[in-house]
Structures are given as C-alpha cells and as structure tokens.
Design goal:
Length: about 300
C-alpha cells in the first residue's frame, strides 16, 4: 500500500493515486480491492455502510468512514476508477465522518477560504484556475469538505489538480496539448500544479452561489435562500438517505449559514471576462474584510468602555 494525504486524512491505498501527495503516518482510511459478497451486504444493512454499483465500472463498499472496498469490472480505465473514488465515493466516506461536503471549489484569500458553489459546468473550476493564475493558492476543486465546530467552519484541502475544460485553460494561457483528459474520452483535462496549493485547513469566510445572467454582479442572499442552495449542492445527498444522515445534514447546513456569509455571483458566460471576475471578487472580499475589521474594533471598544466603567 501507498500512503497519501487528502481532505485532512492519511489514506492507505492499494490503488495508486498520482493525483495525491504522498505522506507517512497512521492511516485514517483504507482503499483496497476485494470481493463484495453477502457478508458485506449484511454490514450494509446495519446502516453504517454504503454499497453502490456503477454500471460497467464496478461495485464500491464504503464502511464507517474508514474503509473503501472496490471490486471493478476487468479492463476498466484506471483513471476513471480514480476519478470516481476521488469524487462521489470519497464524498460518501467524508459524510460518514461527519463532514458537510458541498459541490464547490475553494481558494485562499488572506488566509481564509473563499468558495464557489454550483452544479457541473457552472464554472467552479474555471474560476479557481483563474485565481490560481493570479497568484492565489487553492484548497479544493469540485469537492469541498467542511468541518463545523461551534460557529466556525473549517475547509479541508484536497489535492493539487484542476479538472477544467480545454477552452477555459487555453483562454487562461495554458498549453492544452501537453495535458491529458481526466479519464479516457472525458471532456475535461487534468491540470496538475506544483505550487500554489494550500495544504493546511483554513476557516471559510464566504460562499458564492454561481449563476448565469446578462451582467456580472454579486448580491447578498437571505439565509432561507442559502439553505435551499446548500441542500441543492450537497455531494452524495441522493446516496445517503438514512434518517440519521438527513437529520445531521440539515443541522450542518443550518450551522454553516450561521457561520459563513453567502452571496449570489451572477456572471456572463464569457471566458474573456475572467480577469474582471477575479477583480470583482477581490473587491467584494476586501469590502467584507473591512466590515469585519470595523466590527471587531467596535466590539473591542465596547469591551474597553465596560471595563473602564467597572
């Protein structure tokens, strides 16, 4: 087995993952090949495990947030297996471990996480890549796991790779001829980077809900609307349907809304405008930071006044 670091986990795996950063230590989770038989099906009925099958790929068994057993169809593209494991399969494991996992990419601005949330093809990876081009570090692409502790939301970093459409990479100045599809015949390319990856967890500051429109705009949204969007863009929501998971998920969504600010980010579908979008977010985060700093100063002044009166 090889040991890898991803999502704040040490993962021991019989399947090699060139996308991940190798590490050492006691494994938090294990990925192995094995037969998925009646005994495993019995465990699945206990409610602590998930058993799924992807036609023409194979079966996946995810147990208690600690083990993934894979039984693949002979001849399946290994890159496709890795893509599924690092995507929907690992999302189930992370949710079993009590994390809120949303469909979003996340960057580091001033040592805080700023996330772009939306469905497939909505531009999450393209925006994150554009910020990476401007010198910002990246935490995650497409899968965003969040740990909620009290009123603080912490983002766990993924691994240094984007999955981006060729036209977006070309527009950002990258040579797509040297890049390969994420798996055979996939529409997106695998863009791995060696610098600009934020490897330590960061507090999450803001989530932008992506939308398409006739102009670029960032607008605040109400908590009720943010809640609907969170449920809509939660990963593995349709896979873990047991009552305990649904109840926990709704509670985590409520906690996140109380901890992080949400805005709707509407933009025109134009790759040439990516620099303008980066500037729009930079200005918005600068304004948010200034408001937070002012609020902290006011709180400090109020505490000082009370202490003086005492």
């Amino acid at each position: 087995m090889k040991f890898y670091k991803a999502y704040n986990l040490c993962i021991a795996s019989e399947l090699q993952f060139p996308e991940l950063i190798e590490t050492e230590g006691e494994p938090d989770a294990i990925v192995r090949f094995g037969n998925i038989d009646d005994a495993i099906a019995t465990q699945y009925e206990s409610g602590k495990s998930f058993l799924g099958e992807i036609p023409e790929v194979g079966k996946f068994f995810i147990h208690s947030g600690r083990e993934i057993v894979i039984n693949t169809v002979p001849g399946v593209d290994e890159a496709l297996i890795r893509t599924l494991l690092l995507g929907p399969v690992l999302c189930v494991l992370l949710r079993q471990r009590g994390l809120l996992v949303i469909h979003a990419s996340c960057i580091d601005i001033n040592n805080k996480g700023v996330a772009f949330m939306g469905g497939s093809g909505w531009g999450k990876s393209t925006l994150a890549t554009a910020f990476h081009n401007h010198g910002y570090s990246v935490l995650t692409d497409d899968v965003l796991p969040i740990q909620l502790e009290g009123r603080q939301a912490i983002v766990f970093p993924a691994y240094p790779q984007f999955k981006v459409f060729p036209e977006a990479l070309s527009c950002l100045g990258h040579d797509t001829k040297s890049l390969s599809p994420i798996y055979q015949n996939a529409p997106k390319l695998s863009y791995k980077f060696t610098s600009g990856f934020q490897q330590t967890p960061l507090p999450l500051q803001r989530i932008y809900v992506l939308d398409k429109g006739s102009e670029h705009a960032i607008t605040k949204i109400q908590p009720q609307e943010a809640f609907v969007e969170l449920v809509r863009h939660t990963r593995a929501m349709n896979l873990l349907t047991e009552k305990e998971f649904v109840t926990s998920h709704l509670h985590l969504c409520t906690q996140l809304i109380q901890s992080v600010s949400f805005c709707r980010f509407t933009r025109k579908p134009s790759l040439e405008d990516l620099p303008d979008l980066v500037k729009l977010v930079e200005d918005d985060i600068a304004q948010l930071t200034a408001q937070d700093d002012s609020r902290n100063v006011d709180q400090t002044s109020s505490s000082y006044s009370l202490a003086t009166k005492d």
